[in-house]
């Protein structure tokens, strides 16, 4: 993509790069190596949360040297568009059964943590053998229990970011780096 993304009026423009493509690649490789080690002899099931996690999920899966399986779910949170209310609706559920599986939930970003909190409870109710979370980005002011965040990419300031799967108004998911949105 070129430098000018201001094609539609009213949609904020990506500003400075917060996490470069190179730093993303290095960190994803590290996370993949840790997961490979932690799940040795197992076949973890990666559960990607659409749409934001699609790019992270695809890179992470390739960085894990295990016979992983992949599934996806889509959720939408009610309320304000850039702040989730904690009331989460499952728009697309998983195809696979989680019973006795080693599940790793792959999320793009933890903001308040409400979405992940809801998802975790919902998925734990399906009796997995284990359930861990792998979040690429975590806002510093999240309200989630730290213990829940087993694998995380980067702690970032509480600013709205786009790129590498993350959007504002469905735009900028295809940027290769993470950028702060200026409004
Ligand atoms: P939470 O429930 O407040 O943790 O919000 C989590 C969800 O809101 C994420 O899965 C994203 O879809 C979205 N979100 C939160 N912060 C951002 C951001 O900075 N950029 C893009 N999407 C975000
Ligand atoms: Mg999301």
Main beta sheet = 6 strands, mixed
User: N- to C-terminal separation?
Assistant: 21 Å
Q: Largest sheet, order of strands side by side?
A: 4-3-2-5-6-7
State the domain count: 1
Question: What is the CATH level 1 assignment?
Answer: Alpha Beta
Q: What's the overall geometry? A: globular
The distinct ligands, each listed once, are: inosinic acid, magnesium ion
DSSP strand count: 9
Number of helices: 3
- CATH fold-level topology: Rossmann fold
Helix content: 10-25%
Q: Which architecture per CATH?
A: 3-Layer(aba) Sandwich
Radius of gyration, CA atoms, in whole angstroms? 16 Å
* pLDDT averaged residue by residue: 92
Uncertain spans: none
Order of helices and strands: EHEHEEEHEEEE
Percent of residues in beta strands:
25-35%
Describe this structure in words.
There is one protein chain. The chain is an alpha/beta fold and 183 residues long. It contains three helices and nine strands. Helix 1 (21-38) crosses helix 2. It is globular. The chain binds inosinic acid and magnesium ion (MG). Magnesium ion (MG) is lined by residues 49, 52, 108.
List keywords for this structure.
183 residues; alpha/beta; Rossmann fold; 6-stranded mixed beta sheet; 3-stranded antiparallel beta sheet; globular; binds inosinic acid; binds magnesium ion
